[in-house]
């Protein structure tokens, strides 16, 4: 593995690496409601491999996947939810509806799990209720050739990557795993543990999301923890280097929630940051 040192105006600390590239996609949080054709053209122009979307109507999701395919792009993931109560875990209906429409496409179904006031965040007390329902959803996804990954989100029952891994291990399905979200990991104060958390998650880790962020900004605000990838003082190369060391080869998405810039600028700057972080691998 050859190390390349890159100079940039953000923190990469000499950790850029040239190697087999990770597939790199743009999350639709960057898109600000622009028409799908325009969005995907800008995505293609900025040399992303595809997009991560949100579960709307099944027809809209299928249309996005088809428009991606026309441009040689991939719909890497679609984001939906599940609600956990004392009685049951309920996955939103559209998540089931899109499965046959995305059959064998390689799209990952992202699930954030809201426990409301029923279970404390990160509490294993909800596992007994959640696991059978998630296992059933994973089995339905598998029958359509698809994978499922829990999406850790601050304030959710599964707000940490380690929560997602705990649940995924109990679900015990090869097509059911976890996501690592850099901004949420930083927000809850786990910055120093990131290499350890990635190593623990690796056997169940299906997808990673990154963004520019400031170091030491846990428990602050999203505008410090979600920035274009060419900005911020946190060394995102720490994440990518650890993934390389773990011989992990999954897709990496760029988060852009609440960045107040035009879509094209977000994507251009984030791809520039990606090139600097990865030694210009694509």
Which segments are poorly predicted (pLDDT under 50) over 5 or more consecutive residues? 1-16
Label the CATH architecture.
Alpha-Beta Barrel
| Share of helical residues | 25-40%
Profile the largest sheet.
Answer: 8 strands, parallel, barrel
Strand % is 15-25%
CATH topology name: TIM Barrel
User: CATH superfamily membership, which one?
Assistant: Divalent-metal-dependent TIM barrel enzymes
User: What is the rounded distance between the termini?
Assistant: 17 Å
Quick one: overall form?
globular
Report on the architecture of this protein.
Helices cover 35% and strands 19% of the residues. The chain is an alpha/beta fold and 282 residues long. It has a single domain, classed as TIM Barrel (Alpha-Beta Barrel). An eight-stranded parallel β-barrel has the order 3-4-5-7-8-9-10-11, surrounded by four helices. α4 crosses α5 and α7 packs parallel to α9. Residues 1-16 have low confidence and may be disordered.
List descriptors.
single chain; 282 residues; alpha/beta; TIM Barrel; eight-stranded parallel β-barrel; two-stranded antiparallel sheet; 11 strands; disordered N terminus
How would you summarize the topology of this molecule?
Elements: E1 2-3, E2 17-18, E3 24-27, H1 36-45, E4 50-54, H2 58-70, E5 74-84, E6 89-91, H3 93-98, E7 108-114, H4 127-143, E8 147-150, H5 161-171, E9 176-181, H6 182-187, H7 194-201, E10 205-210, H8 222-225, H9 237-245, E11 252-254, H10 263-278
Parallel strand pairs: 3-4, 3-11, 4-5, 5-7, 7-8, 8-9, 9-10, 10-11
Antiparallel strand pairs: 1-2, 5-6
Helix pairs in contact: 4-5, 7-9
């Amino acid at each position: 593995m050859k190390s390349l040192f890159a100079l940039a105006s953000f923190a990469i600390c000499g950790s850029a690496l040239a190697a087999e590239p990770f597939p790199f996609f743009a999350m639709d949080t960057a898109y600000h409601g622009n028409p799908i054709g325009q969005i995907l053209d800008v995505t293609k122009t900025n040399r992303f491999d595809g997009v991560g979307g949100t579960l709307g109507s099944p027809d809209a999701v299928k249309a996005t996947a088809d428009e991606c395919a026309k441009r040689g792009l991939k719909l890497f993931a679609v984001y939906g939810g599940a609600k956990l109560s004392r009685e049951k875990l309920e996955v939103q209906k559209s998540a089931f509806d899109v499965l046959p429409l995305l059959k064998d496409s390689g799209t990952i179904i992202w699930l954030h799990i809201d426990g409301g006031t029923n279970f404390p965040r990160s509490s294993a007390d909800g596992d007994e209720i959640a696991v059978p329902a998630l296992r059933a959803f994973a089995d339905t996804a598998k029958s359509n050739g698809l994978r499922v990954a829990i999406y850790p989100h601050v304030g959710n029952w599964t707000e940490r990557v380690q929560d997602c891994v705990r649940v995924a291990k109990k679900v015990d399905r090869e097509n059911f795993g976890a996501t690592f979200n850099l901004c949420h990991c930083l927000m809850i104060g786990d910055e120093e543990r990131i290499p350890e958390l990635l190593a623990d998650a690796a056997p169940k880790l299906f997808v990673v999301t990154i963004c520019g962020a400031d170091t030491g900004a846990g428990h602050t605000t999203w505008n410090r923890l979600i920035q274009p990838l060419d900005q911020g003082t946190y060394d995102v190369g720490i994440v990518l280097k650890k993934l390389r060391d773990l011989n992990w080869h999954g897709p990496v998405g760029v988060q852009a929630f609440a960045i107040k810039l035009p879509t094209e600028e977000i994507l251009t700057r984030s791809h520039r940051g990606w090139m600097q972080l990865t030694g210009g691998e694509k």
